[in-house]
C-alpha cells in the first residue's frame, strides 16, 4: 500500500510504514530532529527545472505530470528501491506542497502503483 501525506499535517507519524520525503527541498519550518521520516529521497523528486517551471505558473498539472513521468522513466535507479519497500510494507510518500491533490507525491504514487502491477 502506498499513501501520500503532507508534511505539515503529519509531523509525528509513527508505525504507519516506511516514510520517505519525496521533495528536493527540505520543508520550511520543519526541524529534522522533530520530524519522523525514514529517508529523504531528493533524487526521486522532480528536477529543479521542472519544479520551478510548475511553481512559476508555466504550465498545467497534466503537462507537469507528463514531464515528471518522463523524468521518472529515465531514472529507474531512483524509484526502484521504493518499489521493493512497497512490496514488503506500507510506503508513505511525504511532501510539503500546499495542494493535496496536485503534487509530485500523487504523481509518484500513481507511477509506483502502475509499476507494481507489472512486477
UniProtKB/TrEMBL annotation:
Highest taxon in the source lineage: Bacteria
Alphabetized InterPro entries for the sequence: YeaO-like
Record Pfam families: DUF488-N3i
PANTHER family registered for this protein in UniProt: CYTOPLASMIC PROTEIN, CYTOPLASMIC PROTEIN-RELATED
Protein name in UniProt: DUF488 family protein
Amino acid at each position: 500500500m502506498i499513501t501520500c501525506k503532507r508534511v505539515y499535517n503529519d509531523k509525528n507519524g509513527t508505525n504507519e510504514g516506511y516514510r520517505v520525503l519525496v521533495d528536493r527541498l527540505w520543508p520550511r519550518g520543519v526541524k529534522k530532529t522533530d520530524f519522523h521520516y525514514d529517508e529523504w529521497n531528493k533524487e526521486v523528486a522532480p528536477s529543479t527545472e521542472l519544479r520551478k517551471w510548475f511553481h512559476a505558473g508555466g504550465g498545467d498539472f497534466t503537462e507537469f505530470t507528463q514531464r515528471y513521468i518522463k523524468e521518472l522513466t529515465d531514472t529507474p535507479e531512483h524509484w526502484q528501491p521504493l518499489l521493493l519497500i512497497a512490496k514488503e510494507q506500507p510506503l508513505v510518500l511525504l511532501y510539503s506542497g500546499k495542494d493535496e491533490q496536485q503534487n509530485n507525491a500523487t504523481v509518484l504514487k500513481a507511477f509506483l502503483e502502475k509499476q507494481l502491477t507489472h512486477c
